[in-house]
Design brief:
With about 350 residues, the protein is α+β, with helices and mostly antiparallel strands. Helices cover about 25% and strands about 30% of the residues. The strands form 3 sheets. Strands 1, 2, 3, 12, 13, 14, 15, 16 and 17 form a 9-stranded mixed sheet that branches. A hairpin with a 5-residue loop joins strand 4 and strand 5. Bound molecules: zinc ion. The site of zinc ion (ZN) has 6 residues, from helix 6 and strand 13.
């Protein structure tokens, strides 16, 4: 499982460029499912057939990650970029990046003015991403074009999966490759499930929950469960009062998110999750979140409404080159999902 997370975390997949991640998952999951398709949006939909009189359940995890795309190449060969998804300007400065072109990968660094020549006032100034550029080593626009760099190419952080200590691991894009691992492992390991299970690996979540919207409409499931990550409040600079879940204490079960504007999870789903966790002694943490939302926000509003639950991995430093999770939370989430799916007997 750790190896799969490593592979998926290291793979590039900025919104709209999910092919590489999708191919890895497809190869991994194909032997365990009855049907497999990639729809017109690019979602990967796999299905395990169940009994005809049992409900159909959609599981969803988004494939995409936040990153950058090429906006403009100047005459000196410097690359200017647009953000894709929510990125804090300060996390970009001086990062090593990878540009994925038709000719393969090129590395670049986001350049900045050296401190030696900064005026005193400049020290305290936050540098905006509009004032940043990527230095790819090209000497001119022509040179950059010869390398194969085109407008719209995706740019990802050049960061690599690392074990920090025991079960604590670091890497880019755990949002939401952690959720992808959860679904792959659930499908692989589940045995006594009578319901029909569709696992959907969705595209373009970070830019508007797009793949979830079309796939939920198409599948029209009876229930849905979304897997994602959520903010851990257990490190310096944040308090548990602001983000009351911590790493290592089990998955966060979302009660509501976006202060209710994203989703308010129905009681019938929450009770089922709580009862399952209770029965099998799986640790969970309830979370009423004020911040962002997930694919669940659009899935539950599909057609006549779909009862939807959300299982999230408490994650530190989301939307940066290095997020951190505890593998134990991932393991507990998979157990929980499997036991939940088995509960429709
Ligand atoms: Zn996410």
């Amino acid at each position: 499982m750790k190896q799969l997370l490593e592979k998926l975390s290291n793979a590039p997949g900025v919104s709209g460029h999910e092919e590489t991640v999708r191919d890895i998952i497809r190869a991994e999951i194909e032997p365990y499912v009855d049907h497999i398709e990639v729809d017109t949006m690019g979602n990967l939909i796999v299905t395990r057939d169940g009994d005809i009189d049992k409900p159909s359940i959609m599981l969803a995890a988004h494939l995409d990650e936040v990153g950058l795309i090429v906006r403009y190449i100047d005459n000196d060969g410097y690359v200017f970029f647009n953000p894709v998804g929510g990125l804090f300007d300060q996390t970009l400065l001086n990062q090593k990046m990878v540009v994925h072109t038709k000719n393969g990968k090129y590395f670049g660094v986001i350049g900045s003015k050296p401190p030696h020549v900064m005026k005193t006032a400049e020290y305290d100034k936050v540098i905006k991403k509009d004032d940043m550029f990527l230095d790819i080593g090209a000497t001119s626009k022509k040179d950059a074009e010869k390398m194969g760099i085109e407008i719209g190419d995706q740019i990802t952080f050049d960061s690599h999966f690392t074990v920090l200590h025991d079960d604590i691991v670091a890497g880019k894009a755990f949002d939401n490759r952690a959720g992808c691992v959860m679904l792959v492992e659930t499908i692989k390991r589940m045995k006594d499930v009578k319901a029909t299970v569709h696992a959907v690996f969705t595209v373009q979540e970070e830019v508007g929950l797009k793949g979830a919207k079309t796939s939920a409409y198409k599948l029209n499931p009876d229930f849905a469960f979304v897997t994602d990550v959520t903010i851990a409040g257990d490190h310096p600079g944040i308090s548990m009062k602001e983000a009351p879940v911590k790493m290592g204490a089990g998955p966060a079960i979302i009660v509501s998110d976006g202060n209710g504007r994203g989703i308010i999870v129905p009681k019938i789903i929450l009770d089922r999750i709580k009862n399952t966790a209770d029965e099998y002694n799986i640790p969970i943490q309830l979370e009423a979140s004020g911040g962002g939302t997930t694919d669940g926000a659009v899935i539950h509003l599909t057609r006549g409404g779909i009862p939807t639950g959300i299982v999230s991995i408490p994650t530190r430093y989301i939307h940066t080159p290095h997020s951190v999770i505890n593998m134990k939370d991932l393991e507990a989430s998979i157990n929980l999902l499997i036991k939940m799916l088995e509960s429709w007997i």
